[in-house]
Amino acid sequence: MATQEQHTSMKSVEHSDGSGFRLPVIWTRTLGELTLSYVPDAGVDMIPTRVYPASAEEDWHPHRTHMTEAGHLPMGCGALLVERGGTRLLIDAGHGRISGEDLEHFQHAFGHVRDLPESLAALGVDPAELEMVAFTHFHGDHTGWARPDAVEDPRSLFTKARWMVGKGELESVAPGDGPVLAGQDERSVIVADGTEIADGIRAWSLPGHTPGHTAWILDTGDGREVVAFGDAMHSPVQVQHPDWEVVLDTDREEAERSRRRLVDYLSRDGVYGFGVHFADQQLGTVDGSGRWRPWNDATDATAP
């Protein structure tokens, strides 16, 4: 396996036991020809048994390392900046403007509220210059800064970007709800399963959480792949419990099938995953024991 190259602009500080207590900060890593940067926007502590209604309190006892001391499950919200060759695009668009005060029944509290525009600026990225934003799905914590009301400019924060949208996702918007994205009809490009939207970046349909939920497979150029899988899984615990549906899954059986396909794919040699909600364990792989193994800067010389 090729030796990985790495640069970290800001690292999250992990506990010595590798637990996911902390929400992520900006980071940048390079794998072969691919450079990935996490762009934080918000963070929230979830109530585990409400996010995963099939689980019970005792089911979480073996997973305390993924929880806060108060027993909540931290999740980050943000976007992934992808750079390969002459291509630069964003996967998802963060949570958008939030006060942190309006909570869903499965949320305990917002752990922090960051500003995605400020995060992009810290990475030296002008959102007005991005030509593509690829969406995993249309939930509000993934479309935030691309919505028509995101900023004063009705074109959103990304004034000229085309929207890459998985087949079936536009049809999932209820009639009368209005557009999810700024200039939705004119700017959206419907992407079928397997379509390459740029060199080394292709769509993988993983429906169930929403009808058109789409992961994006990123080719590193040296024989490896990174799968940005959106909400196909919400925490590392789901790798061991693919039967645990998430409260917002629209089709629970199909979502479970997609999770099992994803876990199987991430178990292959040279295939890694990016879980946007995976607290500070976003980049990793599924090891031989069937568990999520996060990137560890100190010990991983050939894999994230």
TrEMBL record:
**UniProt source species:** Streptomyces misionensis
| Entry-linked InterPro entries | MBL_superfamily_lactonases, Metallo-B-lactamas, RibonucZ/Hydroxyglut_hydro
* Higher taxonomy: Bacteria, Bacillati, Actinomycetota, Actinomycetes, Kitasatosporales
Q: Which SMART domains match?
A: Lactamase_B
Q: What is this protein called?
A: MBL fold metallo-hydrolase
Q: Which family does it belong to?
A: Belongs to the metallo-beta-lactamase superfamily.
Q: Which domain of life is it from?
A: Bacteria
Instruction: Report a single Gene Ontology molecular function.
Output: hydrolase activity
Give the keywords, sorted.
Hydrolase, Metal-binding, Zinc
Give residue ranges for domain Metallo-beta-lactamase: 76-277
Q: Does the keyword Metal-binding apply?
A: yes
